[in-house]
């Protein structure tokens, strides 16, 4: 989504949106409320950390992955965590890899 479109959702100009994204400005409550109403994770906007998914909201696929993970020995769990972390970092916005 472009800065212009995202800014429109939050009720600000594209240049203000750019300043939010670069950390030059902090978004106000009305902006956060507007983007939250469109499904944006406000915790992620403010901190860069996604809101954790409550365990009772896991999809069937997520439950299956978690169940499989829990039966692995520590060495294999460590390998899965490293793999998942690497993939998430490579998939993150702004990743250059």
Helix content: 55-70%
Which oligomeric state applies? single chain
Strand percent estimate: under 5%
Quote the average pLDDT.
Answer: 89
Q: Uncertain segments of ≥5 residues (pLDDT<50)?
A: none
Instruction: Work out the count of structural domains.
Output: 2
How many β-strand runs? 0
Helix count? 6
Structural class: mainly alpha
State the order of secondary-structure elements, H for helix, E for strand: HHHHHH
Rounded radius of gyration (Å)? 18 Å
Instruction: Let me know the largest β-sheet.
Output: none
Give your account of this protein's structure.
The protein has about 100 residues and is mainly α. It has helices at about 5-10, 15-20, 30-35, 40-45, 60-70, 75-90. Helices cover about 65% and strands about 0% of the residues. Helix 1 packs across helix 2. The radius of gyration is 18 Å and the shape is elongated.
Give structural attributes:
mainly alpha; 2 domains; 97 residues
Sequence-ordered SSE layout with sheet pairings:
Blueprint: H1 3-10, H2 14-22, H3 29-37, H4 42-47, H5 60-70, H6 74-91
Helix pairs in contact: 1-2
């Amino acid at each position: 989504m472009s800065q212009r479109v995202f800014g429109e959702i939050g009720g600000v100009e594209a240049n203000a949106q750019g300043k939010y994204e670069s950390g030059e400005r902090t978004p106000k409550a009305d902006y956060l409320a507007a983007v939250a109403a469109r499904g944006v994770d406000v915790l992620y906007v403010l901190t860069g950390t996604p809101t954790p998914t409550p365990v009772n909201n896991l999809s069937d696929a997520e439950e299956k992955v978690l169940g499989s993970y829990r039966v692995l020995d520590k060495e294999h769990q460590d390998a899965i965590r490293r793999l998942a972390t690497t993939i998430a970092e490579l998939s993150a916005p702004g990743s250059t890899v």
